[in-house]
Amino acid sequence: MIKLLNTNFHELFKSRYFYLAMLICAAIGGGLTAAMYLFPNYNMPEDAGVILTKGTILGFAPGFSTIILPFVAAATVAVLLDSQFRHGIVRNMLTCGHKRAEIFLANLITMSAATAIYFVCYQIAVFAVAIFAFGYEGYTLKAAFVSLSVMLVMLISISTVLSLVLGNFLRNGKPAIIILVVQYALNLSMLFGMFKHESKVLSVLASAFPQGCLFDFSYAVIPDGIEKNLIISVVMILVFTVIGLVHFQKCDIK
User: Fold this and answer.
1) Which spans in 39-99 are helix H?
2) CB 226 within 8 A of CB 147
């Protein structure tokens, strides 16, 4: 397992795409925060019930990482998996005596670490712009911010695990395209939370999808029901991981 992780991280850190993705995440995080500060409520739906203030910007800007980073994570997963299957790396790992479960979990850990690094780059850029714009002396460690960050990491992790599972299922096709389409569909569930006050159906759907809590995020206040969203996220990650493990154990690797 350790050898597999060393190999995976070596491949990750020598990839130019990985560093490009870090820069893209930082640029988007900083740019989005600046745009919210300069153009508050620009083109915001009238019935969304969302007002951008200093407090909500510090909640929304990090929160939008759940919309952007899954696509970056999905692309990273697709690139790494395509390289592994196309060059016969997975087959060679099996020949060397590594178990399939070890290979799957090593890939999952590596790709989750990459996603966490993207999140850190995004957050640092958000912090830098927010401190410059609002004249903050610095972020204080609040329970609300900690819970928000944990929730965001969980949401992004769902997308990472799902991308890995889909990538293994579709290794002989065009995994990148399918993975990105699925991620886009998953991210649309955040709209349930935006308009949940307009309909009981949308309110129920917002409760079922963890992404539905995005517009309740604030730097100053812990959203109601965040524990439920964390539990749903953990369950989804475990379910996708088990599905991926079962499939990878039985699939034909050429």
Assistant:
1) 54-63, 65-86, 89-95
2) yes
Answer for the pair 103, 90: CB distance below 8 angstroms, yes or no: yes
CA distance 10 to 29: 27
Tokens of 152: 């965001």
Residues sharing a CB contact under 8 Å with residue 177, sequence separation 6 or more, in sequence order: none
* Lowest-pLDDT choice from 1-15, 188-202, 231-245: 188-202
**pTM for the full model?**
0.74
Q: What's the total number of domains in the chain?
A: 1
pLDDT digits (tens, 9 = 90+) for 121-139: 988 888 888 777 776 554 5
Long-range contacts of 230-237 (CB under 8 A, 24+ apart): 230/150, 230/151, 230/154, 232/208, 233/151, 233/154, 233/155, 233/157, 233/158, 234/154, 236/158, 236/161, 236/210, 237/154, 237/157, 237/158, 237/161
pLDDT of residue 197: 67
pLDDT classification of 192: cutoffs 50, 70, 90: low
**3-class DSSP assignment, residue 199:** coil
For residue 249, give every residue at least 6 positions away whose Cβ sits within 8 Å of its Cβ, in sequence order, or none.
100, 101
* Length, in residues, of the chain: 254
Angstrom CA distances, 194 to 89, 154, 197, 214, stand at 44, 20, 8, 8
Interior/surface letters 111-131, b for 16+ CB within 10 angstroms, e for the rest:
bbebbbebbebbbebbbebbe
One-letter amino acid of 217: F
What mean pLDDT do residues 7-25 have?
Answer: 88
pLDDT value at residue 102? 85
Domain boundaries, position 105: 2-250
Pick from 99-108, 182-191, 215-224: least confident: 215-224
